[in-house]
Amino acid sequence: MLTDQPVAPHGLRVRRLGIETGGEAIVFMHADCPVARSEGFATRTRVEVHAGGRRALATLFFTTNGLLDPDEVGLPNALWRQLHAGDGDVIEVRHPQPLASMSDVRAKIYGHRLEQDRLARIVADIATGRYSDVELAAFVTAFAGQPLDVRETAALTRAMLEAGDRLDWPDELVLDKHCVGGLPANRTTPLIVAIVTAAGFTMPKTSSRAITSPAGTADAMEVMAPVNLDLAAMRRVVEREGGCVVWGGNVRLSPADDILIGVERALDVDSEVQLVASILSKKLAAGATHVLLDLPVGATAKVRSPAEAARLSAHLVAVAAEFHLSVTPVLTDGTQPVGSGIGPALEAHDVLAVLRRAPDAPADLRERSIDLSGRILDLAGGPPGRGRAQASAILDDGRALDKFMAICEAQGGFSEPSTAPLRYTISAPRSARVAAFDNRTLARVAKLAGAPRSKSAGISLHVKLGATVARGEPIFTVHAESRGELDYALAFAAANPDAIRLASL
Question: Which reaction does it catalyse (predicted)?
Fold first, then answer.
């Protein structure tokens, strides 16, 4: 790999390493690299990479096994694409300018309230990729254990809103719905969008991928239609069909939030301040005027009690009022999963079963979708209480199915969800009554089975709360795409038999 060709001062030749880092910006140098020595670089140093007028921040690691020569820098796939680099190009690696906003993060860690200008500085640096994963983790955890404050949350919301793009619509009413999460398989959003848009209203729905769950709305929708639409494509779909269900991360409506979600996923942390700012910044950026907020309440849901739901609702409503956004909270049952499938494809199967009015469609998913859709239609100004009947009629006469298929086609085409090649059913060890569901443990089983990365992986439930089962009757089935993932999930399920707790008859 050595060459006699001259290299510019402080310049290094590029080598593509073909490493996938999940989007994380990393560069590699030889341990004896003269640039690293002269600059005083160490492992995990933050560096600034310059290539052809483009630049990127990255974290540095060293090699010692001959993978790179001392005059080379190795780029993983994400950074290679970002810099539009070519093998042999000469680039420069330097110390970046000091990250001044980290002083603001440290202030937050020590319990100080942050004003608009300080939060705007932090969010701008996050949105432009200046924070390392360690620094992002510090920001996420700084808010995790601190009490809610309307003024500070509004400032964070505004900072996240201003860091991205915004949509505006000619309609006086632009409707939206959001669920705070924590309840597996609660896949009402595609159904609600289909019902509400079939009623003639505008609902441009941006959704998240999974944070701590086996599937986010975008993950489930993706097995039926493309969701990685850009802003222009999203606008075309909404103008054509009245609504959409797309991944918010690709339309840059709140880009800092999408970065933070990745860190929250890794830490399994969901701070309430950031939850509020995340929800509201994306709703405001999408141009919503009225939002229905679904808060599932249950002992193993994200929101554990009615008192906690009331506190979070009040905070959301108060912060939304700062932006003249109407938010209507609704407390729902969070004691057990909604529907029968947990995992992207399994949840998609449930959605289609409800839309197609299949005999085995999950009744709880259908009823919750009708109820929430009805409440949204009531927000649109119809006769109070009439929305539910309207929503039910739209679903029952096939208009919702037709509209959903039209939205899928507008987003790039409909696909039937796949099924997993490997399955194993857990049966009742004795005759008993289903006494409780541990939502978090069930979600863990589904994730160990491969969800959401393996689209067809997850759990299908065969029982509901209060049901009686005989010895040997199925309780749930684990779906996986590989034997290793199936074994991991089954081992965890065996170690946690109270994921679905059975009580004696």
Answer: thymidine + phosphate = 2-deoxy-alpha-D-ribose 1-phosphate + thymine
Give the separation between CA 452 and CA 218, rounded to whole angstroms.
10
Condensed to tens digits (0 to 9), the pLDDT of residues 315-347 reads: 999 999 999 999 999 999 999 999 999 999 999
Rounded distance between C-alpha atoms, residue 16 and residue 79, angstroms: 9
**Record: fold of 175-250+270-411:** Pyrimidine Nucleoside Phosphorylase; Chain A, domain 2 (3.40.1030)
At 10-39, the pLDDT tens digits run 689 999 999 988 778 899 999 999 999 888
Choosing from 104, 270, 350, 364, the catalytic residue is: 270
Separation between Cα atoms, residue 17 and residue 68, nearest integer Å: 9
Cβ 253 vs Cβ 234: under 8 Å: no
Q: Which two tokens stand for residue 254?
A: 């709140």
What residues does each domain of the chain span?
11-94, 102-162, 175-250+270-411, 422-503
DSSP assignment of 370-397, as one string? HHHHHHHHHHTTSSTT-HHHHHHHHHHT
Q: For residues 368 and 391, give the distance between their C-alpha atoms in angstroms, rounded to a whole number.
A: 11
Based on the residue annotation, tell me whether 71 is a catalytic residue of this protein: no
CA 349/CA 408 separation, integer angstroms:
15
Which helix (H) or strand (E) element contains residue 474?
strand 474-480
pLDDT at 10: 66
Residue 179 β-bridge partners:
294
Rounded to an integer, the average pLDDT of 181-195 is: 93
Identical fold at 175-250+270-411 and 422-503?
no
Task: List the CATH code of the domain at 11-94.
Answer: 2.40.40.20
Of the options 2.30.40.10, 3.40.1350.10, 3.30.1130.10, 3.90.1170.30, the CATH number for the domain spanning 422-503: 3.90.1170.30
Do you find a cis peptide bond into 76, omega within 30 degrees of 0? no
